[in-house]
Design goal:
GO cellular component, one term: nucleolus
Cofactor: Fe(2+)
Enzyme class: oxidoreductase
Order of helices and strands: HHHHEHHEEHEHEEEHEEEE
Number of strands: 11
Strand order of the largest sheet: 1-9-6-11-5-4-2-3
Number of helices: 9
Helix content: 25-40%
Function: Oxygenase that can act as both a histone lysine demethylase and a ribosomal histidine hydroxylase.
CATH architecture: Sandwich
Family: Belongs to the ROX family.
Shape: globular
CATH superfamily: Cupin
CATH class: Mainly Beta
Number of domains: 1
Length: 280
């Protein structure tokens, strides 16, 4: 592992959990490093924290696809949906959920809206943020649970600070891609949507850890965008490129610049963790 656990959890990041500053590593450097560390049989019995362990971890997340194949055919090119139903378990069960987030909040008495989490909802093409003014910005587990019950969604920043399994996944991404990886958890109640259509300035890996979510992906307005977009209107983004349902245990990858929006169905509460790399 390139950095200590303490350093990894305190690494400088933006408010949404993405790395601070540009990642200067080029894709060809990552590809070269992967090729240099690939063995004929694949890394299985390796030390946790090593380069081989990191590559083996990401290969498992990709459903057994080699990193060389992923980098050459998908990375910065097109989305990839890896289904647990087809490939078996990609990551540990119970990795993150509503229950786990609320338990973390119970043990962290100084969490705040805008600092540690954002609570919002997207209704009738309008985004509404809960600012927490009545509590001076202080966020409690009971208050957030009530907001989730009322149809709000929650974006919880940097959950890897509190969950070892997420910390280890982040560390694997950092080792392979040669820079900081960001993470945020998104919790959305049934029959709800958190965010307007938009695109990001990072490579996005979605790990669906609870329930399911319906995604619409649209062709980029800006290829490999270098900046995060503002909220986009439906008439700006055209028809969907892909529509898919990401089930618990699945992984979804899409490049920076791909416009996207996601919502839950009428039955399932959804939690997913987004790990992001290559902020430009």
């Amino acid at each position: 592992m390139s950095r200590s656990k303490k350093a990894a959890r305190r690494g400088k990041r933006n408010a949404d959990g993405t790395p601070s500053g540009s990642n200067k590593k080029q894709k060809k450097e990552v590809t070269k490093a992967v090729a240099a560390n690939t063995t004929a049989t694949g890394a299985v019995n390796v030390d946790k924290g090593s380069r081989q362990w990191a590559e083996s971890t990401l290969t498992k997340l990709l459903g057994g696809m080699s990193l060389e194949t992923f980098l050459s055919e998908y990375f910065e090119k097109k989305p990839l949906h890896v289904r647990k139903a087809d490939k078996g378990a990609l990551f540990g069960s119970g990795l993150f959920s509503r229950k786990k987030m609320l338990k973390v909040m119970e043990k962290q008495p100084h969490m705040g809206f805008g600092k540690d989490l954002t609570v919002c909802r997207y209704v009738n093409s309008e985004r509404e943020n809960f600012d927490g003014e009545d509590s001076n910005g202080h966020a409690t587990s009971r208050q957030v649970a009530s907001l989730l019950d009322r149809g709000y969604s929650c974006q919880f920043y940097q959950p890897q600070r509190y969950v070892d399994g997420l910390y280890e996944l982040n560390a694997a991404f950092e080792e392979v891609f040669g820079g900081l990886a960001g993470a945020s958890a998104y919790l959305t109640p049934a029959n709800a949507q958190a965010l307007a259509p938009h695109h990001d300035d990072v490579e996005v890996f979605v790990l669906q850890t609870q329930g399911r979510k319906k995604w619409k992906l649209y062709h980029p307005l800006v290829e490999l965008a270098g900046e995060h977009s503002s909220d986009l209107a439906e008439d700006q983004i055209g028809e969907p490129w892909m529509e898919l349902t990401v089930e618990e245990g699945d992984l979804l990858y899409f490049p920076r610049g791909v416009v996207h929006q996601a919502c839950t169905d009428k039955e399932e509460f959804s939690t997913h963790v987004t790990v992001s790399v290559y902020q430009h």
